[in-house]
Design a protein that fits this description.
single chain; alpha/beta; 7-stranded mixed beta sheet; 6-stranded mixed beta sheet; 11 helices; 38% helix; 20% strand
């Protein structure tokens, strides 16, 4: 991968783990219990909606966990969410993981913010992490966040250069500030590249619990509508729902742009990969791994840990050979990367 630090997804995902059912749902592979406050018990992650197999950031978090467990010879545990669960359910889940001795305990997704804040206050000797939220200010909480708007800007540049119909699409899983960042960066990138290109936009749901991140059928329907309306490149920021977006694009033989992980490389999407132009990536795997390492090294600190284009924490995947053959597109991306890196291009986080 050229524009993002090489996500350890492919290698990390090879670490196998035994599957057991936990009291609050999920899978685990536990090392022997320790007496050191969880430092050697291992790492635990609590999935966001979509859970394992979303081919997106839940799976990226899993890859980081797997690699850390293998490298540091520690246990690991991953817990699935329940449909329609409350903050109280999340609080119970994180509390159980902390009491079981896991350290760090990581909530994957902004929906865990209230639960992480409450549980971390009651377990000051445990390091907690939360992906995609920067609202918790605590010494034992690492806020793992990304400049998604920057990679989305690059996705917009790519879309504007790849389209032949002069119409592209954006499908967001849930209408919230996080996904609005993806939308804003993408639209800005398109318009900065070619003002004549139209951008069709749709959000699948208003709330996560309504399936915006976990319903491939919703993603497929939205993308199909945009394609019927003339879009020949569709970018999604929709988690598991994005599989439907990619399927719809492949069915109509137009381009899809993936998100979070390099979706061209994912086995579950292998039959569609010919139509996955690129993916706007963020190194969730690396963020999880680094947090585990900090705990193992006794150097864990709270606060915001922000990954951006300059640090290699976000970028565009370059696995598709056809993508790399588009010389005009590649030149435009290089110029955009330099502009963002130098600060000349200020990418918006909302429209």
């Amino acid at each position: 991968m050229r524009r993002v630090s090489r996500l350890a997804l492919a290698s990390a995902a090879t670490a196998a783990f035994a599957v057991t059912v936990s009291a609050c749902g999920g899978t685990s592979s536990d090392a022997a219990k320790s007496e050191d406050g969880g430092k050697k018990k291992g790492v635990a992650i609590a999935y966001d909606v979509g859970g394992a197999g979303d081919q997106s950031f839940n799976d990226a978090a899993t890859a980081g966990m797997d690699k850390a467990a293998a490298d540091f010879k520690i246990g690991k545990k991953a817990v699935e969410p329940n449909d329609g669960e409350s903050d109280a359910d999340k609080i119970q889940r994180l509390t159980e993981l902390a009491k079981q001795g896991y350290n760090p305990v990581i909530g994957v997704g902004f929906a865990y913010a209230p639960a992480v804040k409450e549980v971390a206050a009651k377990h000051p000797d445990v390091t907690f992490g939360i992906v995609d939220d920067a609202t918790i200010n605590a010494k034992n909480v690492a806020d793992l966040v990304f400049t998604e708007e920057q990679s989305s800007y690059l996705a917009g540049v790519a879309a504007a250069k790849a389209t032949k119909s002069k119409t592209v699409g954006f499908v967001g899983g849930v209408d919230n500030p996080l996904i609005r960042k993806f939308e804003a960066g993408f639209v800005q990138g398109v318009q900065a590249t070619d003002k004549s290109v139209k951008v069709k936009r749709q959000f699948l749901t208003d709330k996560p619990e309504d399936g915006g991140f976990s319903s491939p059928d919703k993603g497929k329907e939205a993308a199909s509508g945009q394609i019927e309306g003339g879009a020949d490149v569709v970018y999604h920021a929709a988690g598991l729902s994005g599989q439907g977006v990619i399927e719809a694009a492949a069915a109509k033989k137009v381009w899809a742009i993936g998100v979070d992980s390099d979706q061209y490389k994912q086995k579950a999407l292998d039959k569609y990969k010919k139509y996955i132009l690129t993916s706007a990536t963020k190194d969730v795997s690396g963020a999880v791994y680094n947090l585990v390492k900090s705990v193992q090294d006794d150097k864990a600190e709270g606060g915001v840990v922000r990954a951006d284009l300059k640090s290699g924490g976000v970028g565009l995947a370059d696995s598709n050979p056809e993508f790399m053959k588009m010389k005009d597109l590649q030149a435009a991306l290089k110029k955009a990367e330099q502009g963002i890196g130098s600060g000349k291009i200020k990418v918006k986080t909302k429209l």
